[in-house]
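User: Run a structure prediction on this.
Assistant: Running it now.
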Amino acid sequence: MKWVIRILVVLIVLIGGFIGSSYWWLDGTARKLVEQEGSDALGVTVELKKLSIGVFKGTATLGELNIANPPGCEKPYFFDLKEGSTAINLGSVMEDEIKIPSVELTGLTMYIEPVKGGGGKYNYDLLLESIEKYSDVEDAKPAEKNEKTVVIEKLVIRDIKVYYKTKVFVTAPVHVDEIVMNDIGSDGRGVDMGELMSIILSGTLSGIANELPGAIGNGIKAGVGKLSDIGGVAVGGLSNAASKSVEKAGEDVNKGIKKLFGDK
């Protein structure tokens, strides 16, 4: 009887090790996909320093997601995220389409600034132009077998600080409590990592546009407005959802803007 128990223990250890090594491999693969496809979509370097998938918990955590600024900018990053967590449908992890019920991203700092030698363009202009080109190329491509895509029911970004520059960077950032995006990739085809990064960036820009001074905010709206959809996701719908979610936070933001520039 003892030898049967020992064999069972060995089998459990081997199976656990196999599962653990599979998810460890998936951690690295997913992180590389975010970085490579995100960089292709945005035209700048995307870096994800940490991604860990909980084998038996059905969760994943990420840390330090950075989107670099285009050349000609003062700050090294356009988008600097501290951490995030997701709930994952583990039954779909090894499939081509991964189902994610929820994503929570926390501690985002953004830097909006004009591009030196850019003919009056801001950094977000160049990023949105790159997204538009990437989206056109992806739409024209035939569907690829074994391509990893995701479907996200709800994505929430919390604690957002936005520094913007006209002549100099403001010392007190605009703060947005929360931006919510729903049903990403739920049209039946999912979105790849490049499309997901594009949706997160354009959706976040939509959510902060109303909280920024007129020229910058209107410029963001115009730039996002040029995007018809990304991976089948209507960007306009994301904009409306995001804008509504920050409406209450905007009251305090507007007070801060009045203090900075005077109540005109």
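The radius of gyration is 21 Å.
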